[in-house]
């Protein structure tokens, strides 16, 4: 008995869901450098290893952001905001600490995706049956641009 083959569904699902352009980059290494001409710091940029079709979606219901207080310690202002990046199965697996950004949104898409960054806390998921690759994300609360 042959197993379930989802190969023919992948292009359909990709065309319906993977509407934006996402970039997966290695974490940047090095300290920011002050640019005398602009009066701003230039931050190092990691090396992109995937840029192509994708989507970023919340991985939980709205309000699913959590920050747990610890008795006797200050309240943590760094929350954990869970998201998922969806990419074609042909996209490379994202290793831990990969930085994900949305570089282009589809017409009518949410422009608030632009400029946000997410960190990959665990390598991309793999599965026996799948039509898109799913990668867990945690939103980076303080992006490099936040201080400008």
Protein model, in words:
- The protein contains one helix and eight strands, in the order H-E-E-E-E-E-E-E-E.
- With about 150 residues, the chain is mainly beta.
- The protein has a six-stranded antiparallel beta barrel. A two-stranded antiparallel sheet has the order 2-3.
- The mean pLDDT is about 85.
| Low-confidence segments | none
Total strand segments: 8
Helix content: under 10%
Our measurement of the CA-to-CA distance between the termini, rounded to an integer number of angstroms, reads 60 Å
Gist?
By secondary structure, the protein is mainly beta.
Which features does this protein show?
mainly beta; 6-stranded antiparallel barrel; globular; 8 strands; 148 residues; two-stranded antiparallel sheet
Secondary structure layout:
Elements: H1 9-17, E1 20-25, E2 33-35, E3 40-42, E4 48-58, E5 82-87, E6 99-104, E7 117-119, E8 133-139
Antiparallel strand pairs: 1-4, 1-6, 2-3, 4-5, 5-8, 6-7, 7-8
């Amino acid at each position: 008995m042959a197993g379930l083959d989802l190969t023919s569904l992948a292009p359909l699902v990709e065309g319906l869901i993977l509407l934006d352009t996402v970039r997966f980059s290695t974490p940047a290494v090095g300290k920011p450098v002050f640019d005398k001409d602009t009066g701003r710091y230039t931050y190092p940029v990691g090396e992109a290893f995937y840029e192509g079709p994708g989507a970023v979606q919340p991985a939980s219901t709205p309000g699913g952001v959590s920050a747990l207080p610890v008795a006797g310690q200050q309240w943590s202002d760094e929350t954990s905001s869970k998201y998922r990046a969806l990419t074609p199965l042909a996209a490379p697996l994202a290793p831990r600490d990969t930085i994900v950004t949305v570089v282009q949104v589809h017409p009518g898409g949410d422009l608030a995706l632009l400029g946000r960054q997410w960190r990959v806390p665990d390598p991309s998921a793999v599965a026996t049956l799948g039509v898109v690759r799913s990668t867990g994300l945690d939103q980076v609360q303080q992006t490099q641009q936040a201080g400008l």
